[in-house]
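Much of what follows relies on a compact textual record of a protein's fold. Think of the row as the fold of the chain written in a discrete alphabet. An example makes this concrete, so a full record is given next.


***
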Amino acid sequence: MDTLTNVDNRRSGNLTPSARINTCTVSSKNISGVSVENAINENVCWFVLRVSYHREQKAYKWLTSQGIETYLPFHFVKKEVDGKLRRVQESLLPNLIFVNTQFSKIDALIRSATNTLLSFYYNHFEFTPDGKNPPLIVPTCQMDNFIRLTSIDNDHILFVSPDKCHYKSGDEVIVTDGPFKGVKGRIARVQRQQRVVVEIDGIGCVTTAYVPSGFITHNNYSF
């Protein structure tokens, strides 16, 4: 499947400066019902939003019209249309979209009367002291890596659940040559091929196509 994007100049795999942001931290300020210990401060962060009824492109247009930096990865799938097999563009992650903004700004849009599309995607692996799930935030480094991979024009990039990735080790690597140069992740066998897997906490995994061992270097970095 080919991957496309809706953020400037992504198809080369190069990130725009706006994709590199400060890491989000925790504040003692209580915001919109989130507990004091887990309140989100006003740093710009990558939030994950749910989109209703597969209307990702409509949500993208609305968010960008409100001045929100938005990332929506696409891919092409083959479907029969009017009796012919055609390549049709679809969202790579159905019903999900990523926004890079302040919590108060996106929270206000979600709560607004004009919003009929979006809601927060919550972090189901963490709980606030009052038993609620906080909104999911993707760390900057993970988002950078995810954008880099999903911006590469390749038919064989996959979005898979973690149980489909058979890791060779826990070692983290970087691709040093070929179309996926610069992508960081872990080596795994997926669909009987050696690939580099990029994990998005709370969402799933995106894999490269086959990467030869000679194009992979073990690297000391952490997400």
Remarks:
- The chain is about 15% helix and 35% strand.
